[in-house]
Structure formats: structure tokens, C-alpha cells
């Protein structure tokens, strides 16, 4: 969350077939959301993008992820819930 906005991690674009196909998961079409390994304070693993309003990115993670307001995502895979493993 950023104020009242729900932030979502942006992943790859999906095809029209994937968007308008039948209901339910398709074999081989599953993607794994990367875990966050950090202090539980979001400020320790998220930073604002200074060039774009309401755009953030993860830092210090195995895979960089862009975070944007959920209402901006259309025809893309995304995640809004994250497993956070405490950094040792």
C-alpha cells in the first residue's frame, strides 16, 4: 500500500489467448512470485523511482521487481501479496 493505493509487482505481459482463454490455471503457465528477503520494514526493500510518479522498485533482491498502482496493470501478470523472509 502507498496511502490508499494498492501496489502490485509487475511481471511479464500476457497474450490475448491467456487473457481471454478458458477459466482456471493452464498447465505450464504458472509463474512463481519471488520471495522478499529483507527486514520486515518495507523501506528496507522498496525505493521510489525518481523518474516516474507512483512507481517503486525492489532493492537488494534476487530479482528486481517494479511496483505500480494495481489499477495501472492490464494484460500483465502481477502480485499484490509477498512472502517476506527475515534477513539473517
Q: What this model shows, in words?
A:
This protein has 88 residues and is mainly beta. It has one domain. 6% of the residues lie in helices and 31% in strands. It has 1 helix and 7 strands; from the N terminus they run βαββββββ. The protein has one helix at 16-20, and strands spanning 7-13, 36-38, 46-48, 56-58, 66-69, 76-79, 84-86. The strands form 2 sheets. The protein has a 5-stranded antiparallel β-sheet with strand order 3-4-5-1-6, with no helix packed on it. It has a two-stranded parallel ribbon with strand order 2-7.
Concise overview:
The model has no long low-confidence stretch (mean pLDDT 83). The chain is mostly beta strands and 88 residues long.
SSE pattern, N- to C-terminal: EHEEEEEE
Average predicted confidence as pLDDT? 83
Whole-number count of domains = 1
Strand fraction band?
A: 25-35%
Summing up helix and strand content along with how strands pair, one would put the structural category as: mainly beta
The residue ranges in which pLDDT falls below 50 over 5 or more consecutive positions are: none
Q: Give a count of the beta strands, DSSP E runs of length 2 or more.
A: 7
Shape: globular
- Give the distance, in angstroms, between the N- and C-terminal Cα atoms: 25 Å
Largest sheet: 5 strands, antiparallel
Helix content: under 10%
Strand order of the largest sheet: 3-4-5-1-6
Q: What integer value in Å does the Rg equal?
A: 14 Å
Q: How many separate helices? A: 1
